[in-house]
Amino acid sequence: VEIEEFTCAVDLQAMKRNYRLALGLLALSALILLVQAEGPAADTESAPKEADDVPPPPPPPPAAPKSAKPKSEKKMKKAKSATPTLALLKSNPAKFASATIKALSSNPKGFINEVLHTKEAHMIKSGLVMGDVFLVMAGIQLQLSLVHEELLAAKVSGLSYAGKHSAMAHSHHHREQLCATGSTIILAVLLLENFGAMYAQGPKKFFGKKPQATDFSIVSTSLILELVFDRLTGFTRVFAELWRFVRIVHGAYETFFHSPLVAPHVTPGH
Fold it and tell me: Distance (Å, rounded) from C-alpha 168 to C-alpha 103?
């Protein structure tokens, strides 16, 4: 019984001590909150006194007189306004032709460089690249169909329907030649665009940019292979066939990452 009474007394003392500690923490917290609440008011009361002691700011310096624009900026604006636009071509073709001739005679490199960097030029180039990729893929498919029909014609030679396969093979060959002709025309236009950029920028600056140098090498090599494709045999023929896949990969990359028609919808970060 004595042990239980001693234990109860100790517990009671501990409870009293914890209760006093809790009251002390509560009072300290209230004091901190009170000090924080009075702090902004004291600052606002002392702010006008400090503001009265601060001297007024010095007057602003006089505004500098507006200087005349450099002659180079005027010339640039004048040249830009004189550059023919697509709207001018639609409204007044004669004036567009005269403005084009005048711009070419005064600053041919700057005019060509500006035309090649317009949105319309990028869209036209993008359309040509996508068209070339389509024609190359169609040509490969037609070549496979041609080989298939020739094998079937040889397999059933002497039968009544052998001529049908031979006619289909001839039709596939004709369509494949049309695709090759269209692709050659597109490559010639793209090569002219590369030569124009090279002339406007200079060979050193042109080949100093890796995308332009890569595009020039692929377009020029593809055009040469297309022109001599029918006369190639052996390894060179196999190389020319495999090179078409390089054109497809390059065209797909240009389309999905640099084309103003496709890239904003597929890869918005580029």
Answer: 53
